[in-house]
Amino acid sequence: HVQLVESGGGSVQAGGSLKLSCAASGFTFSNNIISWIRQHPGKELEWVANIYADYGATHYADSVKGRFTISRDNAQNTVSLQMDSLKSEDTALYYCSTVTLFEYWGQGTQVTVS
User: Fold this and answer.
1) What is the pLDDT of residues 67-103, one digit of tens each?
2) DSSP the chain
3) Rounded Cα gap, residues 27 and 31, in angstroms
């Protein structure tokens, strides 16, 4: 079955960096778009970035463009989100997600920027 497991969250001061990872299993990882989505405390979900399967094309929300970098390792079935120059408004629960026949989400990893 499809599994997505996020890791790497934590607490960091503004201006710092964190690297999130999403470990995937149960589907043909190299064929799938993988997305990062976040949920700020008490607010709606916000799409952050995604990375395509072919050629690894990447896309970012304006709020993170130039500060976050998404990448994938098809040999390891992982997607990473390097987050630099973090701001307090980046504080959120971060999820990775993919769609096969259904949409799948991980359990999330908390990022707190103070």
Assistant:
1) 999 999 999 999 999 999 999 999 999 999 999 889 9
2) --EEEEE--EEE-TT--EEEEEEEESS-GGGS-EEEEEE-TTS-EEEEEEE-SSTT-EEE-TTTTTTEEEEEETTTTEEEEEE-S--GGG-EEEEEEEESSSEEE---EEEEE-
3) 9
